[in-house]
Amino acid sequence: MDKHKLNIILNGSINSYSQVFFSDNKLFGSILFVVSFFDVWAGLSGLFAVLSTIIIAYLLGFSEFNINKGTYGFNSLLVGLGTGLTFSPGIELLIIVFFASITTFIISIALEGFFAKYYLPFLSIPFLIGMWMIALASRDLTELGVSERGIYVANELYQIGGKGLIDVYQWFDYTEWPVIINTYLLSLGAIFFQYNLLAGILIALGLLIYSRISFLLSIVGFTTAFLFYNFIGVDITQYGYTYIGFNYILTAIAIGGHFLVPNKYSFLWVILLLPIVVLFTLSVGKFLLPYQLSVFSLPFNIVVLLFLYFLKLRVKKPDKLKEVVTQLNNPEKNLYFHEQAEKRFKWLEYLPISLPFCGEWSVSQAENGELTHQGEWKYAWDFIITDKKDSQYSNTGDYPEDYHCYNKIIVAPANGTVVDVVDGIEDNIIGEVNLIQNWGNSIVIKHAEYLFTQLSHLKKGSINIKKGDIVKKGDVLAHCGNSGRSPYPHLHFQMQATPFIGSKTIDYPIDHFIKSNGNVYNFNSYDKPLLNEKVSNIEIADLIRNAFNLIPGQKLKYQITQVGKVTLTENWEIKTDYYNNTYIFCKQTKSYAHLFNDGNVHYFKSFTGEKNTALYYYYLALYHIPLGFYKSMELTDKFPPNAAIGKIKMVFQDFIAPFYQAFKLNYTLKYAEIDNELAPEKISLQSRMDQYFFKKRVKSLGFDINIDKNGISEIKTDSIDIKLLNV
Which domains are delineated in the chain? Predict the structure, then answer.
């Protein structure tokens, strides 16, 4: 068996254990693996079920990504554990486990296809069906024999770990625990069919190591259910209720931190939903009683699926309760990534629309303007060109030709198809307007369904495209004129949802652009120009663009020197993942940094791996880089707190993260020097990471970045020097 297949089997197996808690943490999976073997035959049955499922899935060509994540294996694992605990040991048991696991896998695939249409997970429904099938069939499987394990627990534990394990087990089991803690731990153990406190304690410890938010949610969810049981006068500690308490734990983790971005509102909904889970548990239990079937995880599945589907039917989706879009299988990572994505990449929902001109223009009338941008036409801009004295014309300004913007080229703001053109309208005498042909010579371009741009008051005879033409971003369309309701030359620009000249406008931003005030420049992403602001598209600097033109398959070699000594030479390769996301992978440290480049701006999205390495500092220094050069321009951004905060501090941060971020990491970039603006050979940038604790700056790390024809040639701090080697 080759290494690739072996890795899939090993990763898929251990992740099948952690996936029960929506995790892919291998340490947590290993702890759960050990817990499953508190009953040896149950543990063997669970492992056999997982391996059977993974191997069959791989041989039949199902998604390696899902196999590797444990998505297909965890339901079979639970069926294997339950079956192994139900029947007496023997070869017959393993045969039943094999067929039960394959049945569960088939059900998983079928439900995956069904629920995918609604963007919903299949959760542990396959386990329920598989386990109920075994339970109903067990009455006729007389040759197998019902297991009596669990009656003499001490004898079974002695066979596993000797007297030492017995002593540990008895200490935990005979210690007087508060009822709520005792029941909570038993409920955790019951998730893996282990009905003892030691199993619950180990699972709680693993949950705490994997995710502080999940651990907190498990306590909040179970405590809410416990209090509600007391309120309605039902004893949760009764045998039947104790071992279905995991429904409350899993529901809390699923709703509070896995499928929803964890925050105070997701916690609030956990508290609101848990009494509903309790009511489902009580009622469904009565329904299944005549069939002698256990409730297992049915209440958890019903409530979570209903609530997720309920949320998907919202017309508006408030920021207070956000569904996780990019699933990272960890509530902390989901939270930190979402907060960064919300601020840095919210614009990805927009098709990029650029400014429809070259060079720097001024806004003479913005949205909600005083003159004509009112009511249904309020989302629009009028642009002119002004000189250093802020005048829009030279000479007397009595003729259109006196105006700086007159006859300047107008370009396509994005790719699209021309859907309407009006030409042949004469330019006005300065000061006069044509109210009959209000919009003057105009072009409407369709960029997507319900997204059109209109460019108006163009010069007669300058339009060089026709209806039906396909245009690309930057193509010359026409020249600025003074036709229609235009007392002086200017360009009217708006976005609209319909293809007609004069359609009502829609609220839509301009993608990336530069605002300037003299020699002071500001970078803006998916924003709106304001009145009197001078704006331009980013003028790409070839040296910077080439440095960040990282192509899959490309290889780089960097050497990191610390305090004058070479500590490591790193070999990097540019790769893409299952979702076609680009990342840099370091062969030596097994670290990787995901990045995004839209042709105007380079972003790093995340870093995973060893810190104090060249790739890590590369990620910090080059976190957010517009691909133009504007001397002394600065921009700011924010890192996720786990990018640089120490592990111990992050434990504290993780616990309070849904409610408040005590640690914050700010990023600042400054364009320092360029050796020749016309034909540059070297560009210098400076960046800095500032760490704050409760709004007080506690640490800073600055970087000097050199860019030349070979790319990012050097990154320096006070004590670190990172140099490109494969020149």
Answer: 1-162 (1.10.3430.10), 211-344 (1.10.3430.10), 361-537 (2.70.70.10), 542-724 (no CATH)
